[in-house]
Design a protein that fits this description.
The complex is a heterodimer of chains A (313) and B (287). With 313 residues, chain A is an all-alpha fold. Chain A is built from 13 helices and two strands. By secondary structure, chain B is mainly alpha-helical. In chain B, helix 1 runs antiparallel to helix 2 and helix 5 packs across helix 7. Chain B starts with 11 loop residues before the first helix and ends in a 14-residue tail after the last helix. Classes of the chains: A mainly alpha (313), B mainly alpha (287). Chain A: One of its GO terms (cellular component) is cytosol.
């Protein structure tokens, strides 16, 4: 199939491994899905310590299940990416370990305190939900198919995140203050989740022409702000003065982009931001420590659990 | 018909014995789960990561069921988990031992030794005279059924390779003594009451004998040595473990290895930092 035909036909779930697709399409789709899969793994890496920190058994169970779900999403997404025939899962995981694999900006920052878990589980996952919901209509069918399961489980994560946030904001003054502080730290990063405006985005044009991307960065950011600013306020969070957010003539929220630190964002995008580098290497070291197991089981069946993973609730 | 359908039907000594039994059950599961969660995002493959996470959640779920029974005896979750001093915990020292980086052989062996013991212990609780225990055993057994099989699959895989078999042997040398504390009694008197009242219908000594008769030949078949000697008497034989095989600390009596204080400080950290006085329930109380 040539590129013009791809662009002509590009519609929801239009292409599958049965189609003979041009290299440009397969590479762009691989890049996008690999980024998504890597983000699941690095998000799980960031949240794992909070399984232990959770201040009740129920929260601990939900956190363990959430981290497990994310590893499961990574597994599904790597499979959807592999099906494009550009890279194997091992190559993608190796690239993630050696610092070549790219992933979401938010997961390059450290997470140290419990109230920050609400920032990830409610706001970042909520932002991810907005994007993922549109990806159920992406043109690469295996990706869209993976999104069905991912979206279903992410729904539970966001609900759990909201429950953590509500509890903190109804808690002691100290809890409320810690949560507001976490919010101020994370808010600009969360807005940057959607990337730069469409004019500045490198890959946007092609990805939307071939139906991989369904909505632009700007549309998704606006939809997120419209939904989450009222929610943040409902729980008693104060929206920081910067970045400035204005309501435009159509009643939509709009961010003053210059108020955000784009140097930091692009340093992160190159995997050169310090805490992120530490997190990439931390995961790499943990993976190197079990290299001997992978060597032992190579070529034979891998013992697996017999139970379906539970959903977080 | 179980003899005891509520805490009100117990005398003081029985209530104390029941509490001791439940704490051992709950604490074992809880601490075992805490250690399993360390492997999330660190297991050798995505598939094994998912499997260990299942184990962690199963054990946590079981801990939750046993702590819930303790609530009938007047306890509350926040007090049991977040406000109890480290030396008031009653889990076996097997469950609290830390892992060296990447020591997958350790977690697999621990998984195996623990789950064989768990199977036997649950069998001995099936007919418990305390109704709520008997009620909950079935649900737990359904989930545990997969655990031993999963552990054995991995044991056999690791034992089949020289390097990983050596790692398994190191783990046996370190963990076997701690596994024996699973069958120690916190107090001999209470252990006697537990059996007499029929809360558990086998004694710890009987459970230990049965456990040895399963794990020792199994490990032997995999080429792994244990600190257990066979005493042959005419046509019968016994497996003997000398007392000095056991670690100095026994877990069940509140004495623990150093690693425990650190682990305890970690999982109570947020609760203390937020100055909480309650543990949030988000799921319905178990039936």
């Amino acid at each position: 199939m040539d590129l013009d035909t791809v662009k002509e036909r590009a519609g929801p779930r239009e292409f599958s491994p049965a189609d003979d697709l041009p290299e440009e399409y397969r590479k762009a789709a691989t890049r996008m899905i690999e980024f998504h899969a890597n983000s699941e793994i690095m998000g799980a890496y960031l949240e794992r310590p909070f399984i232990r920190e959770a201040p009740s058994i129920d929260r601990k169970l939900a956190f363990s299940a959430k981290v497990q779900d994310e590893i499961g999403h990574g597994q599904l997404l790597y499979r959807a990416a592999e099906s494009l025939g550009v890279k194997t899962r091992e190559e993608m995981l190796d690239d993630l370990a050696n610092g070549d694999g790219k992933f979401l900006n938010c997961f390059h920052y450290p997470m140290e305190k419990w109230p920050e878990t609400a920032m990830i589980a409610f706001f970042v996952d909520g932002a991810a939900m907005r994007r993922q919901a549109t990806l159920r209509r992406t043109s690469w069918e295996p990706y869209a198919h993976a999104m069905d399961k991912v979206c279903f489980e992410e729904g539970f994560h966001v609900k759990h995140g909201e429950s953590i946030l509500a509890e903190l904001m109804n808690g002691s003054k100290k809890e409320q203050e810690m949560t507001q502080e976490a919010f101020e730290t994370w808010w600009p990063r969360i807005i940057q989740f959607f990337g730069p405006t469409d004019e500045q985005s490198t890959h946007h044009g092609f990805a939307s022409q071939v139906g991989l991307k369904q909505k632009s960065n700007d549309e998704l950011r606006t939809a997120f702000l419209n939904q989450y600013i009222p929610k943040a306020e409902k729980y008693g969070l104060e929206i920081p003065d910067e970045p400035r957010i204005r309501e435009n003539d159509e009643g939509n929220y709009e961010v003053v982009e210059d108020d955000l630190d784009w140097d930091e964002f692009f340093t992160i995008a190159k995997n050169e931001y310090e805490p992120g580098v530490g997190q990439i290497n931390g995961r790499k070291e943990a993976q190197e420590a079990v290299e001997w197991v992978r060597e032992t089981i190579e070529g034979g069946p891998v013992p697996s659990g017999n139970q379906p993973p539970q959903a977080a609730d | 018909m179980p003899a005891f359908d509520s805490p009100a039907s117990l005398d003081d000594e029985q209530a104390e014995a029941l509490e001791a039994l439940l704490l051992e059950l709950a604490d074992d599961e809880y601490v075992q789960a805490e250690r399993y969660t360390e492997w999330q995002v660190r297991a050798p493959t995505l598939e094994s990561d998912l499997a260990l996470a299942n184990n962690a959640q199963d054990e946590l779920g079981h801990a939750r069921l046993w702590y819930d029974v303790l609530e009938d005896l007047g306890h509350e979750e926040h007090e049991l988990i977040y406000e109890r001093e480290p030396d008031e915990w009653r889990h076996s020292t097997l469950t609290e031992r830390p892992f060296d980086d990447g020591d997958w052989a350790d977690v697999i062996l621990r998984h195996y030794l623990y789950d064989v013991a768990e199977e036997l212990r649950l069998e001995a609780l099936e007919e418990s005279s305390y109704a709520k225990i008997a009620d909950r055993v079935g649900k737990i057994q359904n989930e545990e059924a997969y655990h031993r099989e999963h552990a054995e699959n991995w044991m056999e895989r690791l034992a089949d390779d020289d390097e990983s078999s050596e790692r398994l042997q190191d783990a046996v040398d370190r963990l076997f003594p701690h596994a024996l504390t699973l069958f120690e009694a916190g107090s001999a008197d209470l252990e006697e009451t537990i059996v007499e009242a029929g809360f558990r219908d086998a004694s710890l000594a009987e459970l230990r004998e049965e456990w040895l008769s399963i794990v020792v030949p199994y490990l032997d078949e995999l080429g792994l040595e244990t600190p257990v000697s066979e005493i042959i008497q005419y046509d019968d034989y016994d497996l003997e473990v000398t007392d000095d095989t056991l670690p100095e600390v026994r877990g069940r009596d509140g004495t623990h290895t150093e690693a425990w204080e650190e682990l305890h400080a970690e999982f109570t950290n947020t609760y203390r930092e937020l100055e909480r006085s309650e543990a949030t329930k988000i799921m319905a109380k178990p039936e």
